[in-house]
Amino acid sequence: MVASQLLVPLAVLVALGTAMIMDLPCAFKTEIPGFCGLIKKAHKVNVATVFNLNGTHFEGVRQNLTKADEALADVLRMKKKSELLAPLAKALESENCALSELKVICNGTKMESGCRLGRRGLQRSSLTLIKAIKKIVNEKQNNTIIAAEEEFLKGRQNGTNLIQDFARNVLKKTSLWYDRVVFAEFEAVSSYHLRQPICWLLRDSRVVRYPYDMYATTGRVMQNVDEHARKREKP
């Protein structure tokens, strides 16, 4: 009963968000062929992923997907090509954070269907957004992304990690990543002693920690993040 009571409001909210984004016009159908379709495809995948992530333990993942979709809506509202990269990179950043959250939750003993379907959906939407980014960056940036893509395609194991590394390389090459995001490793408290990345967002010179930081070895990680924040605050 509780699960169904939680699921109905979630379904309603997702449906409303879907209708809003899908109804938004896209100003670049002619100027950038295929771009608008990629943005709406990524959103559709996110919607399906959210429906597969039931339960409070997936709340952090859903929050990141909500941020990604908000950024995609901003992309569709833009009128100038030069304005597209910032919100698109923000969407990819949020997808990457969602993958980090999911990896912590699904650490071996919790391989339920939500973990499997969530991972598949996040991988698909991340790759879709990278395709969209390739359509709007300059030639030099596109060449560096292609080089990162070649490295990604050479990989054979752990698709989630490979896609995350690929996405980070894309964000790094477009010069929109290190200014705002630090991916710090932390040790997950589990029988497997997994080491996973966690997202730390630096906003308004304040460090905002994402859920599941209770798993972190906070002394070493916070020292690195605080040092990064202090550097940002210097004039």
From TrEMBL:
Highest taxon above the source species: Eukaryota
Signal peptide: 1-19
Entry keyword set: Signal
Name this protein carries in UniProt: Secreted protein
Natural source organism: Nippostrongylus brasiliensis (Rat hookworm)
Lineage of origin: Eukaryota, Metazoa, Ecdysozoa, Nematoda, Chromadorea
